[in-house]
Design goal:
The protein contains six helices and no strands. It has helices spanning 2-6, 9-14, 26-39, 49-59, 63-79, 87-96.
């Protein structure tokens, strides 16, 4: 990606810091999601343990992909009036997001 940025001087001038995030492992993924939920004001666990495993499976630990699948699963869970996001919800969302995450 860095090569592409060099081809666009206007964009490169606006980037002051470059950093590459490495994929998260299972522990890091769960901590990341829990942290983001707390920061959003959530006070109870929303994702079941089985859901974290599925999220890791579908995203390979890439934070941007984690955000996408979690955002969509929260929307699906809310519209389905679920108390928690389970593995089935993650599977359903991943099917809808195929090639988009």
């Amino acid at each position: 990606m860095r090569v592409n940025i060099h081809k666009m001087p206007q964009l490169e001038q606006r980037i002051s810091i470059n950093y590459h995030l490495k994929p998260l492992d299972a522990e890091g993924l769960a901590a990341y999601i829990k942290f983001r939920m707390i920061r959003a004001g959530c006070t109870k666990p929303v994702f079941k343990d089985e859901a974290y495993k599925k999220i890791l499976q579908y995203t390979s630990g890439v934070p941007r992909k984690i955000n996408n699948i979690c955002d969509m699963s929260l929307l699906v869970g809310f519209s389905s009036k679920k108390d928690a996001i389970d593995a089935d919800t993650i599977d359903r969302v991943a099917d809808e997001l195929t090639n988009k995450i």
